[in-house]
């Protein structure tokens, strides 16, 4: 059975990594990829200019 790190071990590993700053924010994720595959059309629409227009209009 593989060793699963405890929460304390995981936290210690995160704290050891240096965090950069970008545009006044601390970037703790770095160059993290998306958490998974796209969920489809709805997620793609979130990244377009259409969504802000809908919220502004309605």
Task: Name the descriptors.
58 residues; two-stranded antiparallel ribbon; elongated; alpha+beta
How do the helices and strands follow one another from N- to C-terminus? HEEHH
**Quaternary organization:** single chain
Bin the strand percentage: 5-15%
Q: Main β-sheet: number of strands, strand sense, barrel status?
A: 2 strands, antiparallel
**Count of DSSP helices?**
3
Mean pLDDT: 78
**Low-confidence residue ranges:** none
Strand order of the largest sheet: 1-2
Q: Which descriptor suits the 3D outline?
A: elongated
Radius of gyration: 18 Å
- Beta strand count: 2
Question: What's the N-to-C terminus distance?
Answer: 54 Å
Question: Helical amount among residues, as a percent range?
Answer: 40-55%
Structural class: alpha+beta
Q: Any chance you could write out the topology, listing elements then pairs?
A:
Blueprint: H1 7-16, E1 20-22, E2 25-27, H2 41-46, H3 50-57
Antiparallel strand pairs: 1-2
Describe this structure in words.
There is one protein chain. This protein is of the alpha+beta class. It has helices at residues 7-16, 41-46, 50-57; strands at residues 20-22, 25-27. A two-stranded antiparallel ribbon has the order 1-2. It is elongated and about 50 Å long.
